[in-house]
Structure formats: C-alpha cells, structure tokens
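Figure 6 in text form: structure in, sequence out.
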C-alpha cells in the first residue's frame, strides 16, 4: 500500500481501472434501462389479454369485434351481404376457379361449398387448416379454442398480426378470413374441448339434431382433450383427422398421413396411441405426423428452467390453471405444413377425390392370437394352483382386450421381446409366479363367473419359444428370474412394468 501511495504511475493506473469499471457499469445500466423502456413501450402499444382469469362456461359464443376499424366495418358489411345472398355467385366461382378446375366437376365443388367442418384448436396448426378450408370453398366453419393470440403465437399463426394480440384466436381467424371469403359462415366457440361438452361442440349446424359435421379436425396439443375428442368421434362414426406434434420438427418432406396405428417417431402420437389403445381404439383414425427422427443438434422438448420454478407462481405461465407448462421449440413453417396437410385431406375426402394413405399395420389377427395365448396360459396357472379342483379353469375369463394386447406389444414393449429384442412370433405371459390363487369367483352355481386377477403390468412380451421356457422353468417350476435372465433384462422388464402401471389408470 505504501508503494502505491508513493508511486504516481501506479496511482494513475488504479484510477484509470476504477474509472473504466464505473464507466462500463454506467453504460450497461443505461443499455438495460433503454431495453426495458423499449420492451415496455412495445407492450403498451399492443392490446393485452384481459387480466381476469380466463373463464370457460359451457358454451361461449363470440360477439362483434370490440373495437372495429374502417377495414373491419367494410369487411363485416360485405360478409353480411354475402351471407344474405346479396353477392354475385359468379364472383365466388371465379375466386374458386382453380379449385373447381382441379376437382374436375361442379358436383365436387358443390360438395365442398356445402360442407360443414369443425376445427378444434386454432393455434399454429389449426389456423393454417382453417385458412386453407376457407380459401378452398368450405362455407361453414365451427372454430373451437379457449386461447388468445400472444406475441409468441405470431411465428406460426396463419393470419394473426400485432393488432390481434390479446384477441381470442377464433375471433382473430374470423376477423381476417372474412376479408378473403366473405361468404363463409363462422360459428365461434371460445371453449376448451372436454368430453362433458363434446355433444354441444360437435352438434349439427345451428343446433340441427338431424345433421352433423362432415369432418372434424383435431389440432389440439393437450393429450387429455385430444384423446377425448378422438374417442368421441371414433365411437360415433364422425369423420376426424388428427394432427400430431409439429414442435421440434424441421423436415417438411417427412410429414405424412397415416392411420394412427401406423404412426411412428412422434412423441405426441405415441402418447395418444397408448391412451386410445387402452380405450379400445387401435386404428381407424387418420393422423398427420412426421417420421423425422431426433438427433444431435436438433431441437427438443425442453422443461421449464429451474429459475422459473424458484420464482414461484409457475401456474401463471400457463394459459389455464393446471394446463401444461413447458417450452416447446417450434419452427414456424412446420405447423403450416401440418395444417395444410390436414386441410388437404379433408378437402379431398369431402369431394371424393382419389387418395390413399399408409394403411394401419395388419396385426389384428396377431393380437387375437396373443390374447388366446394369454387365456391358455392363465388356465394352466389356475389348474396348477387349484390342483384339487380339476374344473376350476372351465369358463375362465381374462380381463384383457385386443386393445390391451396392442398397447402392451406395440407401445409398452416396442414390438420386441423384452428378453432378446426379437420382433417376431411374439406372445405375452405373466412375469412373476403367483404366490396365491389367481382365480376370482363371483356368484354361485349356473350364475358363477370365473375370472383371472391378471393386470396389464403382470405381463411381459417374449417370443413363443422364450415364453414356453418361462412357463416351464418359472411359472410352473422353482427357478427365479436371476436363474434365467441377466440383470439387464430384469431391469428392462421392471422399467416397462412401471410404464404400464402408469397408463393402466386410463383404462
């Protein structure tokens, strides 16, 4: 310290260093304040969503735009004239001339113009599907979505602008599309799709009980709502097509249409298939999905950063309480590809234009065969445990369906033996030897019902040869799993069983 006090050069250097630090701090502070000010002014210049917590009454119809500009007023007046018939049909036909030429007949175009399509989910994917349908001639569109346009929506939404931020997505679509196709009639539903209101949201146009939608488009990214919608449509024979995950995808050449039983390489598709199979739906629903594989350097679904959780009130980041909170990387072009593919499929189906998509795996016979194998194996176990009752297995039922078999084989065990990874001649068999009776009796005499207490998590996928050895050595013998299988195999089986247990609650 003494040398610093007596050395003018050192004093000058120290002063310069301190001055540089203070100057840098001042500059950084100024830049930070400027950035905050710019962000604040930008936010103030954009209409914000209602500060109140979104409410979801059973059916919420959207009224007129709260603040219409001159263009809105002009478009609305034109739309009212068009929908009242005061619009030259030749102008409509001229606008649809290219579609008419492609379809090849007035009948096909007429079918499209009479069509009634419901679009559930009006974000990146749904908005592009809706826009394509309106431009192609579909004259009745019911739009279902509870969400509002946000700044982050603008990288992928088909029509939203900065002026639409804070507006319900369904209303934003109507606002922009009436300027393109004023003859299109919109039925707007500001609502989250749920099974309890499915009948209202998918009813006929204007509540007509004698009619129903010509097609339903599922563009929902929430698993529960998606499964409820697809199950409802499947059970009632409503034509439906579903969009799988466009997030994290980047290759438009890998997007295709296939039956849900054949879709692969897609997390949302896999989760949807699992839930539907447990509900007995194994095929019959076309889906748009990507075969693109994940790889090093590619975008991936990201968890919310830990610092956001530490701030508290994580629920405030979601659109609704208890709704999924995650960071989903999305390249803005891919939702458009998915949305146009959905609309393309609907247009061709409604007009009867020739088309084919990849068929579902023809594995129903295989599932029936595996179910028969499970039945026979359970009967052997009952006869073994109930040795003193030779008729105990007669009339035995197993609480397993072909949908359960499909789920276990294709989803839980990835279509392979858990023992060797072999993908052929697969069966399902109990993993553990029962320590007590597996027989469940209800009633007496001729009204008696016999069933096995088998659960999905009890079964493991093997080849037929492996299962024969497993039955003899473990289920009917005295050997343990460690005597037949490696620690790695046992860990794989246990991991699969935990997955199955988690999904069993959706049965």
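Output sequence:
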């Amino acid at each position: 310290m003494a040398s610093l006090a007596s050395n003018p050069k050192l004093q000058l250097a120290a002063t310069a260093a301190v001055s540089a630090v203070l100057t840098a701090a001042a500059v950084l502070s100024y830049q930070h304040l400027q950035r905050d000010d710019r962000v604040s002014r930008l936010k103030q210049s954009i209409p914000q969503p209602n500060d109140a917590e979104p409410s979801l009454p059973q059916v919420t119809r959207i009224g007129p735009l709260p603040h219409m500009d001159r263009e809105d007023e002009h478009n609305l007046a034109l739309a009212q004239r068009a929908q009242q018939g005061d619009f030259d049909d030749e102008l409509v036909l001229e606008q649809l001339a290219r579609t008419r030429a492609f379809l090849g007949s007035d009948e096909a175009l007429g079918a499209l113009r009479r069509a009634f399509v419901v679009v559930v989910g009006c974000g990146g994917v749904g908005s592009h599907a809706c826009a394509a349908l309106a431009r192609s001639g579909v004259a009745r569109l019911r739009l279902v979505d509870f969400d509002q346009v946000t700044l982050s929506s603008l990288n992928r939404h088909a029509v939203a602008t900065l002026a639409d931020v804070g507006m319900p997505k369904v209303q934003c679509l109507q606002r922009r599309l009436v300027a393109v196709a004023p003859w299109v009639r919109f039925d707007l539903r500001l609502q989250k799709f749920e099974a309890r209101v499915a009948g209202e949201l998918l009813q006929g146009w204007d509540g007509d009980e004698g009619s129903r939608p010509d097609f339903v488009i599922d563009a929902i990214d929430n698993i529960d709502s998606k499964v409820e919608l697809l199950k409802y449509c499947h059970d009632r024979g409503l034509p439906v097509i579903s969009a799988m995950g466009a997030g994290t995808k980047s290759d438009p050449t890998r997007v295709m249409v296939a039956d849900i039983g054949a879709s692969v390489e897609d997390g949302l598709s896999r989760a949807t298939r699992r839930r539907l199979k447990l509900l007995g739906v194994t095929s019959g629903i076309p889906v748009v999905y990507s075969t693109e594989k994940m790889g090093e350097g590619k975008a991936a679904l990201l968890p919310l950063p830990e610092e956001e959780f530490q701030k508290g009130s994580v629920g405030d980041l979601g659109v609704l309480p208890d709704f999924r909170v995650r960071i989903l990387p999305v390249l803005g072009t891919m939702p458009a590809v998915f949305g146009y593919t959905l609309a393309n499929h609907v247009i061709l189906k409604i007009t009867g234009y020739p088309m084919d998509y990849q068929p579902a795996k023809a594995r129903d016979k295989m599932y029936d065969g595996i179910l028969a194998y499970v039945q026979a194996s359970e009967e052997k176990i009952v006869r073994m445990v109930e040795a003193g009752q030779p008729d105990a297995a007669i009339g035995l039922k197993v609480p397993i369906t072909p949908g359960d078999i499909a789920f276990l084989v294709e989803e839980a065990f990835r279509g392979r033996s858990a023992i060797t990874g072999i993908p052929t001649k697969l069966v399902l068999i109990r993993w553990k030897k029962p320590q007590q009776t597996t027989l469940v009796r209800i009633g007496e005499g001729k009204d008696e019902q016999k069933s096995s207490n088998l659960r999905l998590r009890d079964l493991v996928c093997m080849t037929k040869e492996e299962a024969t050895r497993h039955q003899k050595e473990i289920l009917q013998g005295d050997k343990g799993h460690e005597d037949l299988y490696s620690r790695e195999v046992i860990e794989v089986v246990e991991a699969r069983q935990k997955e199955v247990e988690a999904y069993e609650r959706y049965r």
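Caption detail: The chain has two domains: 70-351, 364-504.
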